[in-house]
Amino acid sequence: MQEKLNDLKKRLAEIIDINHAIAVLDWDQQTYMPPGGAAGRARQLATLSHISHEKFINNVIGHLLEELHEYTEGLPYESDDASLVRITKRDYDKARRVPPALVSEIAYASAHAFDAWKKARAESRFSDFSPYLQRNLDLKRHYAQCLGYTDHIYDPLLDEYEPGMKTSQVKGIFQAIKRELVPLVQTISAKSHLVDNAFLHQTFDEQTQWEIGIEAARLIGYDFERGRQDRSPHPFSTSFSINDVRITTRILHDYFPAAFFATLHEAGHALYSQGIRSELEQTPLAEGASLGVHESQSRLWENLVGRSRPFWRFFMPRIQTVFPGQFRNVTDEKMYCGVNRVQPSFIRVEADEITYNLHIMIRFELENALLEERLAVNDLPELWNKKMQEYLGITPPNDALGVLQDVHWSHGSFGYFPTYSLGNIFAAQLFDTIKRDIPDLNRHFEKGEFRGLLDWLRIHLYTHGRKFTLEELANKITGESLHTDHFIAYLKSKYGDIYHF
Amino acid sequence: MQEKLNDLKKRLAEIIDINHAIAVLDWDQQTYMPPGGAAGRARQLATLSHISHEKFINNVIGHLLEELHEYTEGLPYESDDASLVRITKRDYDKARRVPPALVSEIAYASAHAFDAWKKARAESRFSDFSPYLQRNLDLKRHYAQCLGYTDHIYDPLLDEYEPGMKTSQVKGIFQAIKRELVPLVQTISAKSHLVDNAFLHQTFDEQTQWEIGIEAARLIGYDFERGRQDRSPHPFSTSFSINDVRITTRILHDYFPAAFFATLHEAGHALYSQGIRSELEQTPLAEGASLGVHESQSRLWENLVGRSRPFWRFFMPRIQTVFPGQFRNVTDEKMYCGVNRVQPSFIRVEADEITYNLHIMIRFELENALLEERLAVNDLPELWNKKMQEYLGITPPNDALGVLQDVHWSHGSFGYFPTYSLGNIFAAQLFDTIKRDIPDLNRHFEKGEFRGLLDWLRIHLYTHGRKFTLEELANKITGESLHTDHFIAYLKSKYGDIYHF
User: Fold this and answer.
1) pLDDT tens for residues B228-247?
2) What are the pLDDT digits (tens) for A449-491?
3) Domains of chain A, with CATH numbers?
4) Quick one: which of B230, B262, B38, B263 has its CA closest to A230?
5) According to its UniProt record, which protein family does this protein belong to (chains A, B) (predicted)?
6) ipTM of this model?
7) Does residue B365 have an active-site annotation?
8) Is residue B26 within 8 angstroms of chain A, CB to CB?
9) Assuming Cys at both sites, which of A140, A321, B81, B482 could form a disulfide with B474, CB separation 3.0 to 4.6 Å?
10) Is position B269 annotated in a ligand binding site?
């Protein structure tokens, strides 16, 4: 049986090498590739993806998984071997249900939809994008049917990003937080004069921003021997192995938080990826558990650490040293309030911790309606704007600032959005457990010490890689199912304090 | 038959996509990869190389080539299809002769030899490297036997880098230039006081060096929309497609020529790669003809253009603008002489246009002796030093400055070195033809116009990609076989003028 296991591992290692090569090509495309490289890169990515897929759905892997399945059922659930077979089988069974031709068709359609989206957004004209969106929807409906579902057509799509999560569960979660957040936003909007952040809108030297971001990433434990930061239009993180986990940021010369928090956010993802147990290297387990769990870590480091009062107690003097002209008269308390200012706005990626989730809910509700054919593509912009008014009290002046702002639907990535909010919710739940285990966490932060937090996260979460689902991790680490109480309490306490209510 | 041709092209395109992905991974490894990435990268490169090799030696490709061979023999020799089948068959027949296990063994041994070489060079201790060199030699002797040869064991190895070239031909060429160069070096050494280059050894701001290098590369026609420059410890150029051809340079803060001429050199390679006919994209023809022909282009742009008097007539004012403190009192004539100073030295890559070739000859003679077992590995350092004294009149004080300086043998790349000199020789031969076709070339250079030269090279050389051998190109473009008269005449005229003899 050991021989079969080794055979499986060898085959998977080859596929993972290919997937990591794909990640390198993708990283280069987003960071350094000159414009002329686009056509060649598309071909290279298509070829490697095809080879990887072909090698994975090979019958031999299916037979090995069948034979090993029985054997590993006798092993502890969380053992490396049982987890490897369980998770790989989950991937394999799904991959086999989708005809390769449909995979190619989706890739092809989304490449064109992406181009169309870029142009449509630049011109702010939804009608130029709608036929491509329709095509993506049709293909993804077909895809969902191949994967199969009993309850919602959204289920198998959501499952791609958040294994085991159901649409009904997300609906319940969103109802719970919507009930709390909409009035919260209204309360705060009436008190918006209480928080000033004009001092964040000044001119900041780009190289200095770059360096202070690197310093902060290093401070929280990102290992630059096993990673690096580069610039890209859209910040992201990516892994080529547990020991080569990269981040990117973008710098706005006239708004300090953009680069700084993008770096902390991506470094949060990277801390997770760098913290996976090295024994899992070159297996399908050497990744984060899901998009939601990954996002919980980027948000935890960006918001629960980087937008916390004790963090700025420690870091404000550093920032004042490098930007004396801009921050001389800014206290740590003023900085803390400034970087947490709540302001309903049109663009999701610029939103604060509260309104962010309302942006997500709008997308979740709309993509569900589209997939269930309760909503026609042509009616989408109108409903988008209506929901923006309902949840956030503002109406986008055009489609570029509304329905066309996000790339996801052009990629056909329906079911992706909720994972952002699931990440926020799980981060808050985790953090309450952490504070029980490390009662003086705030004092650590005030001294610039983040090692205790990082070690805790490594031991309890990062080490496991992809062995468990979000729900399994929630139960295992926090002792309860994923739920919204911690997140709501966190927001109410934090913003009640900042906005005096 | 068209169907079979399309089948072949499709299979080759897939392999080329993989090879370009390998090139991206290699580029990243040499430019940006953090130290932790090394182990993962080695695995990824090994996996992709294995897949590429496996796909190429597939019997189906062999059958297709057999069937198409007959058909394309009826087509003109230089037609795209005939060339595709001819060149691919040449590669295929060679690839099939080598057992895949030997390919892996060589890759494995050279990875270890490379590590050992780096350490041995750092400690300047040849004995730490010699067992690895012995292993590389044994494997490459075996490799040469697999490929087969009638005359010299060196022939099939040389053929890897310079298709069609024979050891005996290189010997003849080297005898001819050695006869001329050794006395030339002696003559110049006696007059070394005539040329001063102390002004090149000052402090030069790195960013300014970077920018002026980019300006020069752009000036000679390197297209930054289809390429880019990055930094790496060892400058190189690489292609991911005809429209994504990258270069690197390294900057020394205390010696101006290092970065500037490395950029021109690599840009020369890149102009060649960017100039290949776009119809050849994604075929094995979309590369340079050979290492020697490639080197002819890097040398042509670096030396025949960048180290020419008319180039500095034009460019000196620009350099004075960006480095006023360093170059205010340096005339273009003084610059021209300074960047052409001849000085026997220990390190090949720092050598001038004359002594460079003597460095190459030493390596060529020694690697021949090693492969033919006329020389034992342990006796190599002594013979190296003896030849340095004989050809250049100096003896390296240690192995780091002697036999351990180059990476090539640690990679097992025996047969590579002569292509550097073949490039120099072919460049001079080409340039005489160009000057016949464009009589006022110098006046172009003096005005900063290089488009005429680039267009000529594109039409006569670059466009063909890999269709012809060096010898075929020499005959086709210059009307004669490759020979040394042009190169000797060029050196005598140029340096006779500079050193007054």
Assistant:
1) 999 998 899 999 999 999 99
2) 999 999 999 999 999 999 999 999 999 999 999 999 999 999 9
3) 2-146 (1.20.58)
4) B230
5) Belongs to the peptidase M32 family.
6) 0.94
7) no
8) no
9) B482
10) yes
